[in-house]
Structures are given as structure tokens and as C-alpha cells.
Design a protein that fits this description.
It is a single chain. The protein is α+β, with helices and mostly antiparallel strands and 499 residues long. It folds into three domains: 94 residues, Uridine Diphospho-n-acetylenolpyruvylglucosamine Reductase, domain 2; 109 residues, Uridine Diphospho-n-acetylenolpyruvylglucosamine Reductase, domain 3 (2-Layer Sandwich); 228 residues, 3-Layer(aba) Sandwich (Vanillyl-alcohol Oxidase, Chain A, domain 3). Strands 12, 13, 14, 15, 16, 17, 18 and 19 form an eight-stranded antiparallel beta sheet that branches. The structure holds flavin-adenine dinucleotide (FAD). Flavin-adenine dinucleotide binds next to strand 3, helix 5, strand 10 and helix 10.
Length: 499
């Protein structure tokens, strides 16, 4: 089994250890084979993949069971890999950095522990999905509104810990976490801070602990919301478009996280795609404008009307730009809201994945390139050109997206390929490495990375001889010197591990 450059060889778990895990958690909570187990491999790598392959999957049902597994791992020196729902698709799913790691998955710890509508707060376990919380809030008619990512089947906590984004007012999911309960490598666990420095950030995008509960801030259900798009037809429109979005976000006129997606305008003769993965097919999924913004406005009817009027006035400075918004009552659910508006309406769904599979087939696969960029049209054009040039060189296709924050943008670019063809999977990974290098040249780095590229992503933070990575290593050494918890996640290894 392959190892890696840090001296962490892939592990093979002794049969006796698997038996001990069964005795601790019950037979049904230990998966070693079959379809249920296969779900925890990288969904876009073939069954013959040798790297980043889980050894066993365990699914504890309580914090005490998590602690017992961590203690056993400490005693016997085997590695764990934490996964909440394990649907971090595009970044490896539940695939561990070190092959053979025991995936500690939280799908059975899925209790909603508290809903406080007055304070706008819920407390949940890591197995709670966006869909589950939404269904519960609706069933109980709780006047809170969710922010959801483009797919609703993931874990709220898993997504937030990986700095995931939704698009509503609380779209910065990591920022919406409030208080974590964490199991440390020694098997003890701590509650949220409150006096002294906050430690919560140490457990986001890290491998210093296992989050077993979290508080989450939510927004009150608004009186109305207006959802829709801005469409700009010309390449150069991106410059004033981003200037306008940034200003209106900073002024508080726009809310949430508007998303821009570019639709390439080349004719089909220039199509770089291969097999079913062609630009022509991709365009059937994308909107027609050169630049398309998805956005939502939320609040009392008068405020939404005022926000809309200010947006329309600002947009009139871009000739030909079109604004289309549909207004719904705050109580509107999936029956009233058009499916294309579900995401900004906070309704978890699978529409995007279903469409992509419908167009490209069941073996649709993707790797995601998501550097943090300056919030400017120039940066958007540079990104768009780089992604398209690299994709073309490798016979790949992919949309170029950008999540617009007040002072930065997060790119959301999928390189799409046929996951059933190992050569195309390899091409995507090579293309992604080239894109990381390109971003490094801009002084930018990905904010999330596929497990196979985590070291490369952290390597981009090279200031002062990689002081950031070395500091993470010192923290890892202090929290988990034996590297039991998710070694290599986000490029973090104990200080002594070879780099
Ligand atoms: C078509 C498509 C669209 C997508 N759109 C979006 C989008 O709009 N926004 C977005 O953010 N993502 C998006 N994604 C990426 C991804 O699918 C989601 O972010 C998904 O929610 C992540 O999976 P998960 O919630 O099951 O997290 P997991 O896979 O469980 O975990 C994610 C990461 O957090 C760590 N982790 C998980 N649980 C814990 C824990 N309890 N303690 C410590 N560490 C933990 C894991 O080790 C892993 O590194 C999209 C993917 C696809 C395929």
C-alpha cells in the first residue's frame, strides 16, 4: 500500500482491531466491504484506485463511542479520518490522505438537540444534513431561514468546518458556527469557550480535534424574499459588474453571497471536450449570458423593494444588463418556489447534481478549483482565461464561478470529466495541479483542496519559509503528536513528520 512523503505509510488494520471496533460499536456500525463501504471512497476514483482508500468505516452513535474509538486508536496507533456525511465531493469525499485510515463517520449521530427560534440558534450533531434540518424546521413551522450550499445532502457541520458556503444572509457557514464540542486525540472532550481566547477556529479546516456538537446561528424567516439573476452579455461587463456588487455588499444593500457564473461564448468548432463532456453540452446547463449572477434579497417587503430599486438603479450603468427577480412570501416552500430559485430560498435540493448527471451521465465526475481572489473584474477575467486555457490543454471542460464577498471572491470552478475513465481522472488532477501553480503566481491559494493536493495547497503559503505550515505542525504536535486524527488533512502533519 503506498505511503507518502511524510513517513506515514498506508495502514492495514489487524483483524483483531476490527473485532474490537465491532465490540465497541456493534456490528452494524463497522463497514468493511460492499456498497455501504464503497460510498466512503473518493466517488470519482475507480474501484482500482490505490491511493487515499479508507481501510474500515466506523459509525459511532454517541460522544462516548467516539471517545472509545479515539482511545483505541491512540493505544494501537492507527489513524482515523473524520467525516460527517462524507459528501465533500470534488475534494475527495471521505477519502483519507493516508490510505487504510479508519473513517470515523457521523451519519448515525444526527440529532437536532435544540431549536431556539427567539435567539435564532440551533444545536446539532455532525450527522444532521441540510435537508434534515430544513424538514424539521418546516414540520414544526419554526420561523427561521436556512442558508444552503448547492447540494442539500451534506452535513451542516462538515460543510461549515470545511469553510463551505451557502448563498443566503448566513452564507458564510463557518462564521455561523457558534460553540463547538470537540473530542481531542487523547479522547477527552471540551465544551465551547467563553472566557479567554476562542479556540473554535482551531477546529475548522484542521485535524486537531473531532467536532461532535455545534451551535449554529440562523436568520429569522423574512417577510418576503426576492430571488433571481442579473445577466450581462459582454465580456468587459464583468469589470463594472463586480465593482457594483462589491459596493452594494459593503453598503449593506445586497445580502448573502451573490454567485457569478461565466458562460463561454465560443462556437462548437472550438470545443475542447472529449466524449460526452463537451462545451456544447455544458452550455445546456448554464445560463445564456456571458456573466450570470444568482442573488437573493431578504427582509420586510418595504426593505426588499428598496434594495431592489437601488440595485436596478446601479445596474442601469451597465448597458444591456438585465435584472430578473421573483418575489415570494417568507413562508414559501418547495411547492411555491421555482426549482431554479431553491438555493437562494434556503431550500436544500439536488437539482444541480441531477441536471449534471442527466446531461453528462451517471459517471459524471469533477474536481474543484477554488482560490480566494481579489474582488475585481480583472481578477475574474484572469481566472476565466486561466481555467479555460488549462482545461483546454487537458481536453477538459468546466464552468467558471465566483462567490462574491465584500472584500474578496472565492472561485468555484469545476473541472468535469468521465469518472469511469482513469485517464480522464488523471488528466483532471494534472490540470488541477497546473491551476494551483497558476494561482500561486497570482499570490493566491485555494481555500479548499482535494485530499490528494492538500500539501500542495498549503505549500502556497510560503511567507517566511512556510511559517504558517510550520506553526500548524507545532499545534498538531501539541494536540496529537502521534498523528492519530486525520493526518495530512489540509496539509497538517505533526511537527516531526517528514515534509
Ligand atoms: C454539484 C456540487 C455542488 C456543490 N456546491 C457547493 C456549495 O455551493 N458550497 C459548498 O460549500 N460546497 C459545495 N459542494 C462541495 C460539497 O459537496 C459540500 O461542501 C458538502 O456539504 C461537503 O460534504 P459534507 O457536508 O458531507 O462534509 P464532510 O465530507 O463530512 O466533511 C468535510 C470536511 O470537514 C472535515 N470534517 C467533517 N466532519 C468533521 C467533524 N465532525 N470534525 C472535524 N472535522 C470534520 C472532514 O475531514 C472534511 O475535511 C458542491 C459539490 C457538488 C458535487
Amino acid at each position: 500500500m503506498p505511503g507518502n512523503g511524510h513517513g506515514y505509510a498506508g495502514q492495514i488494520l489487524p483483524t483483531e482491531t476490527v473485532e474490537q471496533l465491532r465490540r465497541l460499536l456493534g456490528n452494524e456500525a463497522v463497514l468493511c466491504e460492499g456498497a455501504a463501504f464503497a460510498e466512503f471512497r473518493d466517488p470519482f476514483e475507480g474501484p482500482d484506485a490505490q491511493d487515499h482508500v479508507p481501510g474500515v468505516v466506523v459509525q459511532p452513535a454517541s460522544v462516548e463511542e467516539v471517545q472509545a474509538v479515539v482511545r483505541l486508536a491512540g493505544e494501537q496507533g492507527f489513524h482515523l479520518w473524520t467525516s460527517s456525511m462524507g459528501r465533500n465531493y470534488g475534494y475527495g469525499g471521505s477519502a483519507p490522505v493516508v490510505s487504510g485510515a479508519v473513517v470515523l463517520n457521523f451519519r448515525r449521530m444526527n440529532r437536532i438537540l435544540e431549536i431556539d427560534a427567539r435567539q435564532g440558534h440551533v444545536q446539532i450533531e455532525p450527522g444532521v444534513s441540510f435537508r434534515q434540518l430544513y424538514d424539521t424546521l418546516r414540520a414544526q413551522d419554526v420561523p427561521l431561514m436556512m442558508s444552503v450550499p448547492d447540494l442539500g445532502w451534506g452535513s451542516i457541520i462538515g460543510n461549515a468546518l470545511d469553510h463551505g458556503y451557502g448563498y443566503g444572509v448566513m452564507g458564510d457557514h463557518a462564521g455561523a458556527l457558534c460553540g463547538l464540542e470537540v473530542v481531542l486525540a487523547v479522547g477527552s472532550h471540551a465544551g465551547p469557550g467563553g472566557f479567554g481566547p476562542s479556540l473554535d477556529e482551531l477546529f475548522k479546516q484542521s485535524n486537531l480535534g473531532i467536532v461532535t456538537k455545534a451551535g449554529l446561528w440562523m436568520m429569522p424567516r423574512p417577510e418576503v424574499f426576492a430571488i433571481g439573476t442579473i445577466q450581462c452579455m459582454k465580456e468587459a461587463d464583468i469589470i463594472p459588474l463586480i465593482d457594483m456588487l462589491r459596493s452594494l455588499l459593503q453598503e449593506g444593500v445586497l445580502q448573502g453571497i451573490p454567485m457569478i457564473v461565466g458562460t463561454p461564448q465560443e462556437d462548437e468548432a472550438a470545443d475542447p471536450g472529449q466524449g460526452a463532456f463537451t462545451l456544447a453540452k455544458l452550455k445546456t446547463v448554464l445560463r445564456p449570458g456571458r456573466w450570470n449572477v444568482r442573488l437573493g434579497l431578504y427582509g420586510p417587503a418595504e426593505m426588499v423593494a428598496a434594495r431592489r430599486a437601488i440595485l436596478a438603479r446601479a445596474l442601469s450603468a451597465i448597458p444591456g444588463a438585465e435584472l430578473e427577480l421573483r418575489t415570494y412570501p417568507g413562508t414559501a416552500g418547495p411547492e411555491e418556489v421555482e426549482p431554479r430559485d431553491y438555493i437562494s430560498a434556503g431550500i436544500p435540493n439536488q437539482v444541480l447534481l441531477d441536471r449534471l448527471k442527466g446531461v453528462f451521465g451517471q459517471s459524471f465526475g469533477h474536481m474543484d478549483f477554488s482560490p480566494v481572489l481579489p474582488c475585481s473584474g480583472e481578477a475574474a477575467l484572469r481566472l476565466d482565461r486561466a481555467v479555460r486555457a488549462v482545461a483546454e490543454r487537458h481536453g477538459l471542460i468546466g464552468p467558471v464561478g465566483m462567490l462574491v464577498n465584500q472584500r474578496s471572491m472565492v472561485a468555484a470552478c469545476m473541472l468535469m470529466f468521465d469518472a469511469a475513465d482513469p485517464a480522464r481522472v488523471a488528466a483532471a488532477r494534472t490540470a488541477m495541479q497546473a491551476l494551483y501553480e497558476q494561482a500561486r503566481g497570482w499570490g493566491c491559494a485555494p481555500y479548499r483542496a482535494h485530499v490528494a493536493l492538500a500539501d500542495q495547497a498549503l505549500g502556497a503559503f510560503s511567507f517566511n519559509n512556510h511559517a504558517l505550515g510550520r506553526t500548524y505542525g507545532r499545534l498538531k504536535q501539541a494536540f496529537d503528536p502521534a498523528g492519530i486524527l486525520s493526518p495530512g488533512n489540509h496539509g497538517i502533519w505533526p511537527e516531526g513528520a517528514r515534509g
